[in-house]
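Q: My collaborator sent me two sequences in one message, no labels, and asked for predicted structures for both. Can we handle them in order? The first one she listed is below.
A: Yes, handling them in the order given. First sequence, followed by its structure tokens:
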Amino acid sequence: MARSRTTWHRGPSENPAGTGLKLKVPPEIRELAQGYAEESIRTLGRLMADPDQPAQIQLHAASLLLDRGFGRPKEYIEIEEKMDLVTLLAEIADRRRAVNGHDAPIALEAAKAPAET
């Protein structure tokens, strides 16, 4: 069996947190962008209220305003039957696509199962 050109070595991970690549925004860029926050919010408000804007633009502006003002809403899924993990994950993905039209972050809350006696 041929060996690949790269091999996996036991030991410390290059990515111990297991998270994807996160680029840090330099503080001066973050400060510059935050300086436009009030103007940006007002612009979104004008777009949302402008009857000459397409409904899609108005809806998107309204959604962005709500997300920034109240945070993105959590999504909950009620599970009524026992299923394996793969089936459960597929069900979650299907429901997210149905609601959002794409894959968006969701929050799951684990319910305590009744104790068996």
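Q: And the one she listed second?
A: Here it is, processed independently of the first:
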Amino acid sequence: MDGFALHLARGHDRDVVVVVGDLDGASVSRLHELVGTLITSGSRDVVLDLSHMTFVDSTGLGGMLRSRQLLDDLGGSLVLRSPTDFTRKVLSMAGLDGVFGVET
């Protein structure tokens, strides 16, 4: 068991994906798959709840960027909810702190 999980809460106007554990090269494909499934089912606005994400590396950041771009291309959005201090620091160090909408 790798300790990584994605929990989905479907909503009227947007879907919330709770990321649990490490978002890295070993897990990012699961995020891609879920976002692709959401898009196929008609979702255009997705919130990534990062309050339970314990680690993110460059591959995980790339996955979040790819998901954001896919949704943006369809007129939708990807918003980050409750990123931890660590995640905020990683986003800032990568120059991505202004790229994503963030809600608390």
